Amino acid sequence: MVINMNEEGLETIEQIEEFLSGSAVIDFSVAGADSERYGHISRVLKRFDYPRRSKRERGILHRYLQHTSGYSRAQVTRLVTRWQRNRLAAVPLTKRYGRPAVPFARKYTPADIALLVEMDKANQDVCGPAIAHLLQRAYRAYGDPRYERLATLSVSHLYNLRKSAGYQAQRQHFTATRPVCNAIGVRKAPAPQGRAGFVRIDTVHQGDLDGVKGVYHITCVDAVSQWQVQACVQGISEAFLLPVLALIIAQFPFEVHGFHSDNGSEYVNRKVAEMLEKLRIEQTKSRSRHSNDNALAESKNASVVRKHMGYSHIPQRHAKSINAFYEEMFNPWLNLHRPCLFAISVTNAKGKIVKRYRHADVKTPLESLVQLAVQKRVTFKPGVTLAALMTQARSQTDLAAAQAMQRAKSDLFASFAKTRRRA
Fold this sequence. Notes:
Helix 6 crosses helix 7 (about 155-165) and helix 12 (about 320-335) runs antiparallel to helix 15 (about 400-420). The radius of gyration is 34 Å and the shape is elongated. It is about 45% helix and about 15% strand. By secondary structure, it is α+β, with helices and mostly antiparallel strands. Strand 4 and strand 5 (about 210-215) form a beta hairpin. The strands form four sheets. It has a five-stranded mixed beta sheet, with helices on both faces.
């Protein structure tokens, strides 16, 4: 800022007071660099003999310099102090800040960026808290020394690294998967009361082609532990659906006590009710005007099924191979290695209960199941032990499990293309 001033009319402290009160006898304009403002401050302090002034007069000069220089009160005070300290040595006021002589050291190296790219690619760019949790597990749970620095990476800085040039050069981004919004009817909400075994279920259709239906994906997830079982059927008639529902319930490691769905006829029918009654499982339906009743299953449709299986049409003849992929590779990865966000209920200042997702609450369904077992809120099926599940999870790292799942998924989609070419 350059200050061009005609200060001939300002000779006393009283005249400066008049200037500050509005009856100014001076014309001035402000523009230019800091060096001009520093020179103006030095001239005023020297002309009015600042060191010999009283406390009141110094205060008036401070206010005048703030008004004419545009600096804050703290900055003017610092500059006046520097001027007094250096005035006898005739050292002028100059800018002392600039670029550091030695640049700041980088904490995360290109090797760390490559590891982050590898983890994002294997997990298809899940949210930041989940990736940060996987990086921590890679170092603390599996003892991989390459992840020592990344284990302390904050979620906010993770997004900064994703925007860096080094990351962008190694990772390509595509249009995000669109969420699916399905109208949900409603009846009665399940009440798990913190216990595992109350599942929510929903169906996802894999599109039509020339009027021909594709396969149907079934998402079944526990409301408390988020233990999830995926399955696939050719159609939603009783002939296809009932055997797969029995297979889904059998894949849960704990006893199922509740079965919640929307009001679709594929689940709300006599055959399904009879099967659930034989297993002594309570069946509930969504309530009217309460779309959150089945929100967990709906969210898994978007974040799991659509993310990994896409929107394109898949013929019904591939249902058996998809179901085998789910049971052998996909479901173990979902429950043993894929982190989930768990919400806590908080009452805000207005008395309203809201959900909060903290980084400290990110964990895999198996980790959630361990906590429930300690609290004695889960009943395992005969022959299933928590130690066996943990041994299965420790048999390979999160990254290795995700990469194995991705290879199996690539082989599955390649088989679709081969069958299409033969047809």
